[in-house]
Write a structure and sequence with these properties.
binds nicotinamide-adenine-dinucleotide, elongated, alpha/beta
């Protein structure tokens, strides 16, 4: 057993080495702390900045009402070719019809989007005057819809303006975007909650993205019934995305 003197000496040394500022130390003693406080080199706080999320079986049937509440007159619904034939898109479109909401469908989203596929969706969005965007699909659809909304709201911007540096210029988004409602059909990417749109930049064969709070969907409608039609591999792969977020 260690001698009492050695234990006391060790405790004193620990106390001396510890940060004594009020925020970081529970060994703070009035009057002696300030001089020894050092600036922490690691993160010491985090913020949960997320979209509003509505979760529940069948909640996507309410989307027509949400769009009515937003005063939507011309809605851009984005999805991919595969999903356009499946229940999630059918449910959403039925709700729009029931509530008398006018819409146009873009089903050209590429799975694992690229700069070229983003640009195609952007030009669809620019060629009309949509006042609300709805994305029904996995991360590929939601990310594409975010980009379409961004560039349609900034018609003079060059594509690389908002793309993350060093591939793009990483310019801040200053203008207002239209409301975007995301209806995820996979579980894992969390794209319905984030201000991120990821794509492959073909000229450099590199994955990059656009990151801005402005891209964050106004509302995420998470209806677990949509995952029933998910093929096994998509369920497994998108499930792994959750682990990626946990790691991050
Ligand atoms: N923005 C973000 O925060 C974020 C985070 C992680 C990943 N991502 C991106 O998300 C993309 C991947 O998205 P994903 O994994 O959700 O899949 P996905 O959108 O790429 O879709 C994969 C395939 O599954 C099909 N599918 C999707 N839902 C279905 C359903 N309910 N029933 C039947 N078929 C269905 C699609 O038609 C497609 O063929 C990648 O581009 C990745 O980079 C984005």
């Amino acid at each position: 057993m260690a001698a009492r003197d050695r234990v006391v000496h060790l405790l004193r040394q620990l106390e001396r080495a510890a940060c004594r500022c009020p925020a970081h130390s529970n060994t703070f003693h009035q009057g002696v702390g300030a001089a020894t406080c050092t600036v922490r080199k690691t993160d010491y706080a985090f913020e949960m900045a997320s979209s509003n999320i509505r979760y529940g079986e069948g909640v996507s049937r309410e989307i027509g009402m949400d769009l009515q509440n937003l005063g939507a007159r011309n809605v851009c619904v984005m999805t991919d070719k595969n999903l356009s034939r499946l229940p999630p898109v059918k449910t959403v479109l039925e709700s729009l019809v029931t509530n008398g909401v006018q819409y146009k469908v873009y089903d050209g989203v590429r799975v694992e989007p690229t700069d070229t596929s983003f640009k195609d969706a952007i030009s669809f969005a620019k060629n009309d005057s949509f006042d609300v965007f709805v994305a029904v699909g996995g991360g590929s659809v939601i990310d594409t819809c975010k980009a379409a909304n961004l560039y349609a709201s900034h018609p003079d911007a060059d594509f690389l303006d908002f793309v993350n540096a060093p591939i793009g210029k990483g310019k801040p988004v200053t203008g207002a975007l239209k409301p975007l409602i995301a209806v995820p059909t996979t579980a894992g990417t969390g794209s319905e909650t984030t201000g991120v749109a990821i794509f492959d930049f073909e000229p450099l064969k590199a994955k990059t993205g656009i990151a801005s709070r402005a891209l964050r969907p106004t509302l995420g409608i998470v209806d677990p019934t949509h995952t029933l039609s998910m093929p096994e591999r998509v369920a497994a792969n998108s499930g792994f995305d959750v682990l990626w977020w946990v790691k991050d």
